Amino acid sequence: MERSVRRTDDAETVVLLYGDMLFRLCFVMLGSEADAEDAVQETVMKYLWKAPCFESPAHQKAWLITVAKNECRDMLRARRRRPQLSLTCAEGVTLDEADSGILDALMSLPEKYRLVLVLYYVEEYRIQDIARIIDRSPSAVKMRLQKGRKLLDEAYRKEYL
């Protein structure tokens, strides 16, 4: 019984520490609040089920991001088999109306660029850390950042300027 109590406490701590970050990441990847909530919930459930031990909080955070990223990819694969919904629900997520244009432009990018842009600019991960999380080389991450910035700029200018 003590172990299940500890796991519940661990889950609450994980949600308090990383829940918002995981939700933002999943929302940007999936474009849906409900799907993002589901992905975060699945990530926490996998954390509880596997009960991994971590060297540091940074290792724990990287593990959670990797699991959430993989969960989002699985959901995107499943979504391809079903009709997709529009991303109009994204409008209410930002606090500032000016930010919604950036969010809309970000949501229009392919997933591989969205992910590195969010990890680098929002979560402030270093390129080497992102490379480990997405299982690519640092040079591939730099190229995705460069291409992602260009695509983001083009998407934003096309829609809002």
Summarize the structure in words.
- By secondary structure, this protein is mostly helical.
- It folds into 2 domains: 85 residues, Rna Polymerase Sigma Factor, Chain: A, CATH 1.10.1740; 69 residues, Arc Repressor Mutant, subunit A.
- It is built from 7 helices and no strands.
- Helix 1 packs antiparallel against helix 2, helix 2 packs across helix 3 and helix 4 packs across helix 7.
Write the topology of this structure.
Elements: H1 2-30, H2 33-50, H3 57-80, H4 97-107, H5 111-122, H6 127-134, H7 138-160
Helix pairs in contact: 1-2, 1-3, 2-3, 4-7, 5-7, 6-7
Low-pLDDT residue intervals, each spanning 5 or more residues: 1-6, 84-95
Structural class: mainly alpha
Distance between the termini: 59 Å
Mean of pLDDT: 82
> What radius of gyration results from the CA coordinates?
16 Å
How many strand elements?
0
Helical content (DSSP H or I, runs of 4+): over 70%
Residues in β-strands, percent = under 5%
Shape: globular
Q: Please give the domain count.
A: 2
Tell me the CATH topology of the largest domain.
Answer: Rna Polymerase Sigma Factor, Chain: A
Query: How many separate helices?
Result: 7
CATH level 1 class label of the largest domain? Mainly Alpha
Q: Strand-and-helix sequence, N→C? A: HHHHHHH
The CATH architecture assignment of the largest domain turns out to be Orthogonal Bundle
Largest sheet: none
